[in-house]
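Lab notebook, entry 384. We have the chain sequence and a SMILES string for zinc ion, and the next step in the workflow is to get a structural model of the bound complex before anyone spends time on docking refinements. Request logged below.

Task: model protein plus zinc ion, output structure tokens.
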Amino acid sequence: MIATLLPAMSVGTHLSCQRGTTVVHDYGHLLDKIPVLRVLLINDTREAQLAINGSYQITGSLTNIIDQGQGLQKSKIFITNGCINIGNKQYNNSEIRITGLRDGAIELNNIRYRGEIRIVQQFNNKFSVIEEVDLESFISGVLGSEMPPTWDEEALRAQAVTARTYVMYKKKVRGNEAYHLDMLDLAYRGMSSESPRLNKIVQDTKGVVMVYNWNIFPAYFHSTCGGHTEDVQSVFGKDSIPPLSGVMCNYCNNSKYSRWSTDINKSEIERRLGDAKVYVSNIYSIKAINLGAGKHGSRVEIVSANGSKEMNANDFRLMVGPNYLYSTAFDSKNNGKSITFSGRGWGHGVGLCQYGAQAMAEKGFQWTAILKHYYPKIELVRVY
Ligand SMILES: [Zn+2]
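Result returned:
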């Protein structure tokens, strides 16, 4: 989308910063309206709870209105005989769309959403739910879930632009696919994590994204890098570009995840790996290897009774559990029944370091300077 945007003329809006001056190129005319995202809220389930506050209408896949009403008490969604059931109502459609009218909010499994939802039948009496929501409302629903909402507003603005860039990239890459984002991409809780303060912060940066060489890119971010962010190539195997190749970070030392140590039972590690169909027993050692610029392991080597096994380090961390093994920048020690991991940082280490961004904001850096630090050689562009 933005690849077609060539810098024929950059109409710069100068934003003065306490630390340096940064330009947000104003291409607000590029998109005539806020893009709409398709977000997979629930995948392939047999049952969900729906409630609607206010008036609503239900349309079939041909946009014909098949039902409307005023408020809906909490009702069960389920499939029988090829029909979609909501409470005691039955719709003989493979897919229906529910739209809250006049600010009516849709509540799905106790989370409120402001967009439209589509209930789409799958095989074996299962269904998925996809929300259609404008990008700015989506970012408002992400911001308070991805960063503590009480943090400095410059850090929150940097996070808003980071999330918007990531989302625009996903929308570009997934194009006409059934959905652009799922719940693994970003933490999102609809209207439930919004607040007037956060909505204003999103509004302050409305339509602003980062580009490198006038291309949108996957603006990864994480909690704490532990001293140096990591190269996207080493963590995700993607082509390295300057904004995602890793920078020094002298800002996240105060994060409680900057340095950590944790003891995990071998049997627990074996069980968790087994759940992901990686079978090891009697672990002898686990080593992070192929260290990147931020000293995060690109791979891990597990020596056990099954011999020596190598795997992608980030996959290993997610299998063991990101709330147990905080990062892949670790040393480890065999204690007999357990392994002690001592490491740095929380998360994959690529892109914005959130604790670092907060510390920069507290030191007086503005959001533009924070982004230029963590994503070198970017331009900031307003696209709508
Ligand atoms: Zn950091």
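Notes for the group: The longest strand covers residues 65-80. Worth checking against the assay data. Residues 47-125 form one domain.
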